[in-house]
Structure prediction request, 365 residues.
Amino acid sequence: MTHASIVGWGKCLPPGVLSNDDLATFLDTSDEWVMTRTGIRTRRISHVSLGEMATVAAKRALACAGLAGRDLGLIVVGTTSYDDQCPNQASGLQRALGADGCAAMDVNTACTSFLYGLSTATAMIRTGVVRTALVVGAELISPFMDWRNRDVAVLFGDGAAAVVLQASERDEGLQLEKLGCYGEAREILRIHGMGGAYANQGRVLGDTSWQFEGQEIFKKAVAGMSLACEDVLSRAGLTADDIDLVVPHQANQRIIEFVAKRAGVPMERVYVNVQRYGNMSAATVPVALCEALEEGRIRPGARLLMPAFGGGLTFCAHLVRWGERTTPLDTSDAELPPCERSGLQLVHDLMVRKTRGAAVPTHDA
Ligand code: UT7
Prediction:
């Protein structure tokens, strides 16, 4: 049987840092509230497009794998915050990487998009459709944020990360997954103003209002992630003791702790970086994976469990067997352009643009 080894990984975090104290300068909130309810201390605000962040992450992942864009047979971009809906994000990345002619598709299941993309690409490698794939999780949430709404503005951040998959005879990579969706609860997380339903109605670009029932999302997140973990472990014939590291979606420290407790995995074997970045939606799991590797938390042959949930409300858990290599083959010199503005200044820029009703910009992907 052909497997899909994870042979490269790379991340891209924009430099603009937005702290809880920064948020408290324009919202009725505090570092103490946000820390105790979510575990988040800072998040990143991007000064560049989604495509630019995704390209840097992808170049780093390719260098890590010792591969070039032309080696790819497939690009999957998991995101909810496309630069454009047409043409899709993946085609822009194909061009930026020189991956001429390869298949290129976007997957949108909100925060689970990277993991749904990992399933898609792995299935295509297993069935022989392609031999090498890039899977990206990238999100540029800040332009779509309702910065007047403290219920949501404190929770999210921007970022991107990618992995490279390659056909292999070795039994590694994605082993088993559970994918699901509580469609009946989809209204508890809805971003009004983001999508075709709002086109041609005189609405200012990025003028969103978030329908967001935090406590209901919290309960569904814990239920869905726990169900998915249980399903995967029982089908794999494994117990919590067999899992070396849980790399979960990072939306809220308390959600992570509930899920770990239900799965029976002690927090020492759970990777958490929500304090640094908040919820980066599709980028969250691959950024956490990259940082767990950088920090030496993933040893050769490790078994990883990656549960996640997102708008929809989608949920999933992925069981991954890591390969022998935990360090990059090479590094890329790809960098974002420098940014003179702080995270707080970038948010102010976004708020001013929204008030003025900025025209729809055109850009090169
Ligand atoms: O990928 C999907 C993303 N979504 C999520 O992950 C959300 C999941 N839900 C959560 O993480 C939590 O429900 C929240 C962090 C959103 C909220 O925490 P909570 O413990 O459920 O708080 P709450 O909604 O029950 O609000 C408690 C109080 C309220 O005040 P009152 O009614 O008790 O006077 C809120 O108005 O906290 C108030 N509050 C805030 N106070 C300061 C809500 N947001 C804030 C804020 N700063 N940012």
Remarks:
- The two ends are 38 Å apart (CA to CA).
- Residues 214-236 form the longest helix (23 residues).
- The domain at 175-321 is CATH 3.40.47.10 (Peroxisomal Thiolase; Chain A, domain 1).
